[in-house]
Amino acid sequence: MIGFIVAGLIIGALARLIKPGKQDLGILATLLLGLVGSVIGGTVANLLGTGDIFELNVLGFIIAVVAAVLLIGVAESLIGRRRKSSADRS
């Protein structure tokens, strides 16, 4: 379980480094998005028959980082819309 959390944090941090621009996400959001990305990567790798969902393998890791980058982009767009709508109401 601790390894899963550490892997999620590493994947989230890598995703933030890969994604261009400044992200307005805290460490907890980075960890959560990295964890979700690692679950997606492990699931896809498992479906492709390259390993188990909790097993560290190259394909799963790459897919996890790509998924985390996409999730960070989605999270940023949602945060940006929420801030814009709250600024419009002021």
Q: What can you tell me about this protein's structure?
A:
Helix content is about 80%, strand content about 0%. With about 90 residues, it is mainly α. It starts with a helix and ends with a helix.
The profile of the biggest β sheet is:
none
Structural class: mainly alpha
If you compute it from the alpha carbons, what radius of gyration comes out, rounded to the nearest whole angstrom? 15 Å
Count the E strands: 0
Low-confidence stretches: none
One letter per element, helices H and strands E, the order comes to HHH
SS strand fraction? under 5%
Q: What would the principal axes of the Cα set say about the shape? A: elongated
- Bin the helical content: over 70%
**Total number of helices:** 3
Q: Would you tell me the overall average pLDDT? A: 81
The N- and C-terminal alpha carbons lie at a distance of 44 Å
